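Assess this:
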Amino acid sequence: MTKIISWNVNGIRACYQKGFLNWLALERPHILALQETKAHTDQLPQDLLDLPDYHVWYAEGVKRGYSGVALFSHKNLPKPEIEIGLGIKKFDDEARTIIAEYPDYFFINGYFPNGQRDLGRVPFKLEYSEEVIKLALSIEENTGKPVIITGDFNTAHKAIDLANPKSNTKTTGFLPIEREWMDTMIERGFVDTFRHHHPDEEGHYTWWTYRNNCRERNIGWRIDYFFVSESMLENVSDAFIMPEVLGSDHCPIGITL
């Protein structure tokens, strides 16, 4: 069994101060994908860089304290081949992507852009999203290996995926054009693992604003996902959300292979 977890930590240094390494030692995922690390490696404590049980990679953007992703791969697994970035400067300058090749599959950790309140970055978000899917489809075609795509997608797909859908139809993260892109992702052969295992369950969210005690009241959004190639679906025995884990405005999510 392989346990894979993804978590938008909203600042790895802040999460570290809130017990991140204790959580990691207890949970012991085989693969851990982090988003919004908001740090360069020269800003990190040494024990976030030299983890005895893990190979660790950080993607660093041009702007310090912004964006960023990381990948921890347990040393019990074969060490993956790593590619940092999509090879597209405007996205890679923001350190949004790490691609790992394992013997049986590829793994893409992505921090999908936020469209912003004025919707000014929605086109940038959709372009990045499309490039990730084009890459995944190309990998499948050229290698024959399935692909796992995880991360903070910054979009709630269906009305069931957020507490207040009616009042958010003009808000980025629930715009029709953003949701339609997720429809096309599924049409192109990728499966939302959580909805596959929990098709009609309500009240499952992965992000809550810090305002108005929304987490305590469970007024949230499910915007973090594990998508897998259809050919890999039979290998996914479980998909789960961990709302009890604090340390960020997002909670971790996971799958078991």
Q: What stands out?
A: The helical segments are 12-17, 20-27, 89-92, 122-143, 176-187, 193-197, 214-217. DSSP finds seven helices and twelve strands in the chain. The chain has one domain: 3-256.
